[in-house]
Each structure stands twice: as C-alpha cells, then as structure tokens.
C-alpha cells in the first residue's frame, strides 16, 4: 500500500508481526475475536503458527510452559480484551509465580474511552489490572513504539528471574500506518537478553568453605536449574562432590532419577538429617516447608543458596552462604573452587543409599500387587508407566491432580531434563491440555499426560484442540470418580458429596473429536493401550479405572487442610 506521495506503507499489524519474527518468535497460542482476529489471520498467512484454543486460560498455560521449555524465548499468548484478557491473566500470574518467561498480548480499548469509563466494547483498564500479577505491564499506543515495546517485553520476560509480561494493544494501533523504510529502521533484536550473571568471588569462597566442612550435605535441585539448562554444570558439580541430591517435581530428570547419588527415595530422612542443604534454583517456599519444622529435623540447617534473584536470599530462613547469579555461572565457579576437596562422607552417603534401597523395595512390592476387585490403585497402574518411561525417556510427561500428581511424581522416574511438566509452585489444576499442546509443538516429541479425573475437567475441552492439530498426545485419566477419592458419603438431604464425580467415559469424549479412546481396568490393559497409543503418534485417551477408595484427600499435602474443631452446626 502507498500514500499520495507514492511512499510504500506498512501498518500496526505488520510492524508487530515483523518485530516478533525479528526476535525468533514464530508461534502464538490464543483465542481470536475483536480486535485481534485479523492479526491471527495475517500471522498464519505469513506462515507463522497460531494455535487456536477453546479457552484463553489454556492458551496461556501453553504459552507459559513453552517459555519454560525454551528458556531464552518467551511463550506468547494472544487474546481479545476484557474477558479474554482476564482468562489469560490466570496463566500470566501462574507464569510469574513459576518464573516462566511468557508474554500475554491482549487487544484493548482506547485510553481516552477507558479513562472516562464511557462503556467501550469489552472496556477494561487491562494494563493496570495486569500489573500486580506479572513482572511488567506495558501498553503500546503508537506504531513507532511497537519495536521497543516488544523488545522490552521480551527482555523483561527472560532476563534475571524470568516471568510473565503483559502487553496491551489498543485496537486503533493495528490500523496505524508508517513508511516501510522507517519501520525497517525501528525494528531491532535486543542484544544478549539473558546475560550471564556472575557471582562474587567471595560468595563462591564462602559457599565452598561451608560445603567442605559439611558432614551430611544434600543438594536440592529446583526447576530454576532445569530452565537454565545447566545440565552439564549440575552433573559436574554433583559427581565431583559426590553429594546426594533431591529434585523438586519439575527438576526431575535434570539428573536421572536412577542416578546412584539420588536421595529422592528417602526425602524425609535426607532433609531431617542433613547439616548443609545446597539450594540450586530452588526456593525455600511452601514446597520445602519454608526450611523449618519437622521436615528439617526441627533445627536450622546451614543453607547454601544459588539463585538469580538477590532478594530471594533469606526469604524464609537465614542463608549461610548466598550465591547470587545464574545457575550455570555459579555452579561452574563452585565446582572449580571445590576441585580436590574430599567427596561427601561415605558414612552419610552409605546411610542414604541403604534407605533408598529399602524404600524402593517397598514401592516395588506395591507396584507388583495384584489388582483388587475394586480396581487398580495408583501404584500398580503407574508402575506400568514407570517401566514405559524408562524405555522411552524422550517423552514429555504432563501431570496434575492430587493423588494422580503425587503418586506419578514418586513412582515415575525421569531420565531427561525439562520433560516433567506439572502443577508447579501453585499446585494449580488446569495446566494439563495447554501444557500438552505446547510440549508437543515446542519439542516435536510425544506427550503423555497423567491426569486426575477432576484436574482433567479444568481443560478437557482442549481435547478438540489437540485433535484439530493432530498432536502426538496420550492422555491417561486416573479415573477414581472423585476429587481425591470417589467414595465420599453424600451429606444427606439429597445432596451429593462435593468431592464425587461421575466415573465418566472420557475415552468416548476423545473419540467424539476423532481421537482414539481406550477403557482399561488392569495394568496389562494399560500397558497395551499405552504402547499402541504412543506408537500411533495420534491423539489418544486412556481411561484408566482406579479404585474410588484409592487416594488421600489432598494427597501428600493433606496437612494443609484446616479441619473444623466445632463440627457441624
Ligand atoms: C510438598 C512436596 C515437595 C513434599 O514432598 P514429599 O511429598 O514429602 O516427597 P516426594 O513427593 O518427593 O516423595 C514422597 C515420598 O515417597 C518417597 N519416594 C520418592 N521417590 C521414591 C521412590 N522412587 N521409591 C520409593 N519411595 C520414594 C519419598 O522419600 C517420600 O517419602 P518419605 O521420605 O518417607 O517422606 C510434594 O508433596 C509436592 O511437590 N507436592 C505438590 C502438592 C500439590 O501441588 N498438589 C496439588 C494441589 S492439592 C490442592 O491444591 C488441594 O488439595 O486443594
Ligand atoms: C485451579 C484450582 N482449583 C482447585 C484446586 C484444588 C485441587 C487440588 S487437586 C484437585 C483435583 C484432585 O482430584 P483429581 O481427580 O484431579 O486427582 P486425584 O487425587 O487423583 O483424584 C483440586 C480440585 C487447585 N489446586 N487448583
Ligand atoms: Mg480423582
């Protein structure tokens, strides 16, 4: 298009697209509508990928985990204004809480109408509403600011402690025009958006001293270390020092769960008995009981903490040796500083190994137990998946639920990093199908999702999305007919228990969209279905019937529930 002076013009749609492409972003997840439908159309016509979801929350979860898997590039979610923005905001907050780099872009109303509250179509002050729930919230009002605005959003999302960034796009921005020549001058790719953050030499020396004097050290690996892709540095540090390690859920596979130094199978003993705990990209938050209490032997441990965020240090407990920097730089320097130092004491590693072997033996017995008349339980069903994943480690494992989550985390060993994608820091339900779409589209590898039947319900409609894009996703529903369990007594007066669900034919739901459904009642049937489903590289759903009595309310975190002391009024 040219203007009256025959100057070739571009517009907001195309400057935004060209800026995203300049930054190696070729994929967006979202739901179309006013005012962004034509952006999605033009994006697809330009040969880029737009995964069109059924609900913005799941598109947002897809973008959040895409950012985690990629690490140095944010996942991008595109939504309409107001309700679409709000649906995406949950995922943006989830990304920020989990430190996943993600950008939520939403169409919006013009400032002058919003500020006078004149009742625009889907009017909402989105930029300000987003601000408390993300690392930064920007609004781009002028076509000339699109390149710098997107550059700021990308750098903010991926640098330092990664997180979510909101970019507000008023409808009129897309229709603004600019000469192609000027646009070319303005569009740029920011330099070094994830710079190394080198720790101070004295911090390394202090940490090395604490570790050298430790009698019973452990390493706790967090998903921050997994996202940093510090795979080689973690391996070198662990194996040079001989220190036992434990992974948080999504850090499983950073070191293979089958590694001889893994103490995961005796977590309680390891944390209670250790004298020094080295936190690597892991926060001392609720998932680690804030570093205090029975879990930690009711005594203050000496903590070495490697974290990119300076004010994470001392967040919950005094940290004896803070090491602020990126995981790769910190571990490389710490490994160098510990060269020649004695390995972790054999008395300690031997004691852990003994308990690990005992606990693994106990679990093996549970996994081999015959199926009761009331159906499979979590152990003898997930034992099948354990064996399958050991033979097929390059598969993405999505996981949510309560018992479905905790038992899968405990039973299913991971051998590769960034493959286990679960409810994360918030323990949120609903990440399932969005994570499946992103894991399949970002990695190109098959996905298995182990879903509690309640958890699946949060995103189940996205089975249609998975079928529409014909993704290699196998969903396993752990169908115990309930939130936590399926056998709670009804409260009476014709009311149905708040934790009961219909033990539905989810396999038929998948078939409704053209996928393949399996209904299985035994580990043998589960094994056969799993092998066939994953080999097909097609959308499949295995409806695994689990004993309604299997499971515990809230799984491993039952103690967080407050129980009334005054009983029924
Ligand atoms: C908080 C936690 C980090 C605490 O970890 P733990 O559960 O104590 O440990 P793990 O899960 O690692 O292991 C559990 C136990 O199994 C043992 N274990 C682990 N692996 C093995 C193997 N391979 N063999 C044998 N035994 C094993 C381990 O030593 C622990 O036993 P011991 O050593 O004997 O202790 C974890 O529970 C967690 O990540 N929970 C997430 C909860 C969540 O988000 N739920 C969804 C929302 S629920 C909700 O919102 C709601 O209900 O409402
Ligand atoms: C957004 C949100 N809403 C509710 C909840 C609370 C919850 C935690 S776990 C769970 C489902 C547990 O049942 P499921 O069938 O999935 O698993 P299982 O134990 O194997 O039976 C709920 C509702 C959370 N965490 N997030
Ligand atoms: Mg259930």
TrEMBL record:
Question: Which residues belong to any copy of the Thiamine pyrophosphate enzyme TPP-binding domain?
Answer: 412-543
Ranges where the Thiamine pyrophosphate enzyme N-terminal TPP-binding domain occurs: 12-129
Q: Which Pfam families match?
A: TPP_enzyme_C, TPP_enzyme_M, TPP_enzyme_N
Question: Which Gene Ontology molecular function entries are recorded, alphabetically?
Answer: oxalyl-CoA decarboxylase activity
Which major enzyme category is it? lyase
Keyword list (alphabetical) reads: Lyase, Magnesium, Metal-binding, Thiamine pyrophosphate
EC number(s)?
4.1.1.8
Q: Which cofactor does it need?
A: thiamine diphosphate
Instruction: Using the record's annotation, list all stretches that form the Thiamine pyrophosphate enzyme central domain.
Output: 204-332
Keyword Magnesium annotated: yes
InterPro entries named in the record: DHS-like_NAD/FAD-binding_dom, HACL1-like, Oxalyl-CoA_decarboxylase, THDP-binding, Thiamin_PyroP_enz_cen_dom, Thiamin_PyroP_enz_TPP-bd_dom, TPP_enzyme_TPP-bd
- Keyword Cytoplasm appears in the UniProt entry: no
Q: Which PANTHER family match?
A: 2-HYDROXYACYL-COA LYASE (PTHR43710), 2-HYDROXYACYL-COA LYASE 1 (PTHR43710:SF2)
* Annotated NCBIfam families: oxalate_oxc (TIGR03254), PRK09259.1 (NF006721)
- Name the protein family: Belongs to the TPP enzyme family.
Record protein name field: Oxalyl-CoA decarboxylase
Q: Which gene encodes it?
A: oxc
